[in-house]
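Q: I'm writing up a methods section and want to include an example of the input and output format. Could you take the sequence below and give the corresponding predicted structure tokens, formatted cleanly so I can copy it straight into the document?
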Amino acid sequence: MREIIETNFMSGVRLSRHYLPEMKVMNWGRIIFISSESAIIFRWNDPLWMTKTMQLALARGLAETTAGTAVTVNSVLGGSNAL
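A: Here is the clean output for your methods example:
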């Protein structure tokens, strides 16, 4: 579980902490999270669901901190053939 959190969530936290302050200073930048439909389809026992939901929440929070700037934060949610 820890490895999934490190890969899907904490990597985005660390990269954002590193790059976002300079993007705000330059008033330009793009952060794009690659998420999945796992973030919005509830699967209680699925660690992927939890981390992808965390990732969406992170993207939303970061996007709110960039309001009024030319920095954007978005998430791309791909579909699945598994449904």
